[in-house]
Amino acid sequence: MASSAASDPFYVARDEVQSSVDEMSARYEEWQTKQASGANLARSASFDELQQKLKEDLQILLYVSLSALFRLLMFFTRVSLIYTFCALATGLEYFRRRGYSPLPFNDIELASYVASRKISSSGTAVYVSKISVKFDDSGQKAEFKLQMSSRATNPGRSYTSPWLKIGFPPTCVGKVSLRASNKAAYDEFKRSLASEVGGEAVFKAFVLRSGEDTEYSLHVCAGGTLGKYCSEIPIH
Length: 236
What we know:
single chain, 3 domains, 9-stranded antiparallel β-sheet, SNARE, Syntaxin-6/10/61_N, Syntaxin 6/10/61 N-terminal domain-containing protein, protein transport, transport
């Protein structure tokens, strides 16, 4: 217990200040005694020296007090920062164990969020029974795979896009840009889907808020942008 108190910043600061106060008090009592003696102190060198030491004691006490106060403030600041960090780490671990993650705020964060992941869904479009999107390690390229439903021209047939360079909207929500290095393969992919759904040779994607704005979803539209052409894939 004694060793614990000796290392406690509060007690260390208290002892330093108390030591300076005790030393100054002893010198002040000596000064009072000489004042009450009735002796002629006007030319007393020892009395002048005593008064000078009292002034120095006052300066030392002020310095020690401010120094101790500063060290205490620094100590409590560190404790506060450590507590905040631990609380934040605990909170993040709590969400991580339950499969939750903070939502991205911009396109860079969203790309990092989906990097190396594969997301999928089924039964959200008229002509597509299953859809999946596989992202590369940077989250800036994606491969789309769509399986046709019973309403399509060739039920059960699957189509896989070439790897597409994707650009998420700056605020995460909005149209996603899709560009292919192999344009011929991409055009053939779009034409094949158009023939399956009876629509146009277009392939588009959008990021929207979903789940009462608690998550994002990727809407992939093949053949047009009407609801019947679009599949919704939760991003979580």
